[in-house]
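Q: Joint fold for the lines below.
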Amino acid sequence: MSAWRRWGPPLGLALAVIALWQVLHWIAGRAAVASPWETALHTWNLLHNPRLAGHAIETARAFALAAAIAVLAGVALGLALGAHRLTGDVAEPILMSLYSLPKVTLYPIMLLIFGLGISAKVAFGALHGILPVMIFSMNAIRNLDRILIKSARAMALGPRATAVHVLLPAALPQIFTGVRLGVSLALLGTMIGELFASQRGLGFMLLAAIERHDVHTIGAVIVLLTGFALALSAGLMAIERRLHRSP
Amino acid sequence: MGFTRVAVLRLAVVAGLAGALEAACRLGAIPRTSVIPPSDMALALSEVLIERRVLEGLGETFGSVLIAFALAVSCGIGGGLVIHALPLLRRAVSPLLAAWYAIPHFAFYPLFIVLLGLGRASLVALALMLSGAAMTIATLDGLDRERRVLTKQARIYRLGTAARIRLIRLPAALPHLIGGLKLAFVYSFIGVIAGEFILSTSGLGHEISYAYDNFETRRMYGLILLTLVLAVSINLGFRAYERRLARVQG
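A: Joint structure:
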């Protein structure tokens, strides 16, 4: 009963979205929007096609690298900036401004610096992902309860022990929120990178499909990317909830 | 007083970074073909600003941004009020809203182009997809913070639904709504520029990709700097307004 109460409404919403999609298909016509069933079939066929596998692996590789760089560098830089109050005060608005930029417009610079190929995509994905990780890590340290630091001092912990046993566990839930957002944005950045000046990857497939006016492939790639992004986000959110619950 | 010292330091940091980039470019550590010195970028910006095409593109971009923003605000506040009133709908929608910004929205742009044609309608749809959710989430947040005493007060005065929304709910939610307005504007701006950059025939985003495609590196940097200046000023403007509002409310 409780599983039904929990999963029933979201399931209903999913069905409503599919129904809306079908209606859109009827209104806009076959040439504009493939029906949900056709798209599902096409996605299934694509999944058994070695061509898609190659593109998907390319995207997955670029995304994994971008996410790893964003998370590792973001946490390290964020903690460093957050540890010192003045540095944090100086950096915060700069980071927020960077976060609110339309970063797509910076992509040509990435291409000019890194050249055509996977490194520009990775750099662009990492650029998208690193900012939320940095901002959340920095604020996690800045908003820590002062009493934690005082009690660490009272127990005569050294700086290393304070960081490992007190500060990091206390800040972890908030840092992880940043990691979740950063990983999602790294995927977005990698995909945007593939839309331009790229010969491989799901983003390239999408752009090639637009040029061929291949609505089936457009639908299938959207379903694959969105499904992957939602599943990834749901998984990370489950971990995050557990972190927030266990103090 | 501490505020001014921090602001001065912040300016110094930004100026220092720009200076370092300038030096690296002038000394040849970074090739001119990939990045031009910041002083050249500023000159290019001033050249770009007197181009008729760019001014028209700017007007077009901001037109689309404002349409998307207005739609996002009305849909977001309306949607937030409806979702807040219906708990069942809320249980259905909240997982989607929580994961909304994980969706690679730009992948939907081709779909909008097929449906609405290449032009302003698709750009607005893409921007609305990004910004509408932020406004909805902010409205829900604001409504959740409504204090019990206000609800009771409304019952004492026997306010109707419309009067309750107008006189109590929306004013109580205002601080959150301002945060939502800021996000909605920023996301509308990002959505429109990104859409123009990916595929369009005019607008600021299109000018940048056009300059890149035609190897007009200098002009491209001028246009990128223009976009950055616009985005940062919008952000700072909202920030100042938020701070003033926080002071007024005490």
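Q: Anything notable?
A: The domain at 37-249 of chain B is CATH 1.10.3720.10 (MetI-like fold). Chain B has one domain: 37-249.
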